[in-house]
Automatic annotation (TrEMBL):
UniProt source species: Pullulanibacillus camelliae
Taxonomic lineage: Bacteria, Bacillati, Bacillota, Bacilli, Bacillales
HAMAP family per UniProt: Recomb_XerC_XerD (MF_01808), Recomb_XerD (MF_01807)
Domain Core-binding (CB) residues, every copy: 1-86
Domain of life: Bacteria
Keyword Cytoplasm on entry: yes
UniProt subcellular location: Cytoplasm
Name this polypeptide is given: Tyrosine recombinase XerD
GO term, biological process aspect, one: cell division
């Protein structure tokens, strides 16, 4: 039963062009699903899987304490896999058809206030090469709202500093152009002129942001940098590599930005994904009202 899963993952990579993290998520979900079908249901062929088996699998996950969002993701993986089996002629029926997807709890993203963002942006030690790099990274993330996975894949040629924009590849290898603010442009210019030459040994290094060894910075590497800077600048709320992206979108909408424009900059395929940030701004308005209105 492993071969069809392997073929499905290959299809996602080659034909759908999905990101590595998404592929790994599918792989984990389907490995878990396969183990359940083989060990619990004692089935050795995808053709023999039934609707009832999939339903019992979801209840098993629920009994293990999996959250609605996790259940929804597992079901999406199972459904996509069975549709692939149908299309490839491996099975004659789709047992996942008409099984309802568990409703995922829609949590409001955690964001930083503008004051906290300012503190974070001023945190790096700009007397050192790595500090200048960290300053440029934070300025770019907050100026553009790009994902950290997109940031670490940026090359020198993707930055168009004179014209004030960058080019990045998002999910599904979709290219988009995002404006860069003046602060971000200046921070990147200083980094390229004063810091990167001291970090990189090879002159033909195409990676924009590099680590202290001159190699392309990784997502994990940035995560460590962010946690350290948050601690040093006294930001005690939960912070992740996505926090600046959430803050970017929320602050734009709070200041009157058009929802469609924010959707385009974030690279969201569906505007409903962007709409979550309108709920964040409403939530923050209630907090302000409760704090400052004399009769709240």
């Amino acid at each position: 039963m492993e071969d069809p899963i392997r073929d499905f993952l290959h299809y996602l990579i080659v034909e759908r062009g999905l990101a590595d993290n998404t592929i790994q998520s599918y792989q984990r979900d389907l490995k878990d699903y396969q183990e359940y079908i083989e060990k619990v249901e004692r089935i050795a062929s995808w053709e023999k899987v039934t609707r009832e088996m999939i339903t019992r699998y979801l209840y098993t996950l629920k009994d293990k304490g999996r959250k609605p969002a996790t259940l929804a993701r597992h079901m999406a993986s199972v459904r996509a896999f069975h549709r692939f089996l149908i299309r490839e002629g491996i099975v004659s029926h789709d047992p996942s058809d008409q099984i309802g997807t568990p409703k995922a709890e829609r949590r409001l993203p955690k964001i930083l206030s503008t004051q906290e963002v300012e503190r974070l942006l001023e945190g790096p030690d700009q007397e050192t090469p790595t500090g200048l790099r960290d300053k440029a990274i934070l300025e770019v993330l907050y100026a553009t709202g790009i994902r950290v996975s997109e940031l670490v894949h940026l090359n020198n040629e993707d930055m168009h500093l004179t014209m004030g924009f960058l080019r990045c590849l998002g999910k599904g290898n979709k290219e988009r152009i995002v404006p860069l603010g003046g602060h971000a442009v200046r921070a990147v210019e200083v980094y390229l002129a004063e810091a990167k030459p001291r970090l990189v040994k090879k002159k033909d290094n195409e990676a924009l942001f590099v680590n202290h060894r001159g190699q392309r910075l990784t997502r994990q590497g940035f995560w460590k940098i962010l946690k350290r800077l948050a601690l040093e600048t006294g930001i005690h709320k939960p912070i992740t590599p996505h926090t600046l992206r959430h803050s970017f979108a929320t602050h734009l909408l709070e200041n009157g930005a058009d929802l469609r424009a924010v959707q385009e900059m974030l690279g969201h395929a569906d505007i409903s994904t962007t709409e979550i940030y309108t709920h964040v701004t409403k939530h923050r308005l209630k907090d302000v009202y409760a704090t400052y209105h004399p009769r709240a």
